[in-house]
Amino acid sequence: MNQSIRGTFAALSLATIVLATGARAQEADELVVYNAQHEALGNAWIEAFTKEMGIKVVVRKGSDMQLANLILEEGDLSPADIFLTENSPAMALLDGAGRFAPVEKETLDQVPAEYRPANGMWTGIAARSTVFAYDKTKLTEDKLPKSLMDLAEPVWKGRWGASPAGADFQAIVGALLQLKGEEATAGWLKAMKENATPYKGNSVAMKAVNAGEIEGAVIYHYYWFGDQAKTGENSKNVALHYFKNQDPGAFISISGGGVLKSGKHQKEAQAFLKWLTGKGGQAILRDGDSYEYAIAGEASAKLVPLKDLDAPKVEASTLDNKKVVELMTAAGLF
Fold it and tell me: d(Cα 123, Cα 102) in Å, to the nearest integer?
């Protein structure tokens, strides 16, 4: 075991954390979480859950689709008990493959219906809003795009950016596909190839706006709030534009949690999901420094209230990541 992993064990003595490769085999009584959420948020949840409930947790870290595809490959032999994501397409993939056990009713009752699928096979645990992060030294409100669709116009060529390879942006495209259809989405992506500068990560795209490389970027809201809460050095010239008006650019992405039906610790996994969507897990979202939205409780007072975002109605359980990848590949974005 390398020194960095030893340090993680020391820092989180209340929870057993094994990153990326799974440096050791878990013990029989440990809950196994495949975590695609941000590492710091996942660790905060796990530490608090273990302290309160006395259940040890071991974690495997990866991206949404990386871990979802791993679970599919592992099949019934997967050691995973529970899967957490940043966005919902990976949840939809596993749900469609029949990999989840039904979520207990008490847990579902804690989460508003708009933040969980109707079939009850997984649930939302947090949310994030799509925004246009713009250079406030160059753009005034009257010069901002009225819709996400406006960014396909020639006038925006070379002026905006995004992180097309990331699960975050692909979820946004999934919402666009559901709301506007394949033809409109394909056209928008083709225009994006011509107009937008690609970056590796939302934070990198925001930094590019702040540095004056581009005038705006399509990202999630919490990157700006997180930087502002620290030094603000990567966002001092940046403001956020919320599209609202049920525009595709007002899409709210749901971070999901689901219990694997092949897991060996069903009771503990259900308890963890109930805790995440209950007071303990939602308080960490409200009071912590992730700046993601609590969806089953009061969100941080620093955020624009979810009810004021006027987001479009998107069925998270049917976001089609496979088609999104096909369309983005055809547009030359990969």
Answer: 10
Give the span between the Cα atoms of 52 and 70, in whole angstroms.
Answer: 30
Alpha-carbon distance of 200 to 154, in angstroms, equals 24
CB 55, CB 15: distance < 8 Å:
no
The torsion region of residue 220 among left (phi > 0), alpha (psi -120 to 50) and beta comes to beta
Tell me which residues of the chain have a pLDDT lower than 70: 1-28
CA distances from 197 to 194, 221, 300 (A): 9, 19, 32
Strand 123-135 relative to strand 252-259, pairing? antiparallel
Residue 254 to residue 313: CA distance in whole angstroms: 12
Give dist(CA 65, CA 321) in Å, integer: 9
């941080």: which residue's tokens? 300
54 neighbors 80 (Cβ within 8 angstroms): no
Integer Cα distance of 1 and 262 in angstroms: 28
* Alpha helices by DSSP H, the chain: 3-11, 39-53, 64-74, 89-96, 105-108, 167-180, 182-195, 202-210, 222-229, 266-276, 279-287, 321-330
Amino acid identity, position 99: R
Residue-wise DSSP of 210-230: HTTSSSEEEEETHHHHHHHHT
The whole-model pTM stands at 0.89
CA angle 309, 315, 317 (to 5 degrees): 130
Q: Say which residue the tokens 């971070």 belong to.
A: 255
Tokens of 94: 């596993």
Residue 27's pLDDT is: 57
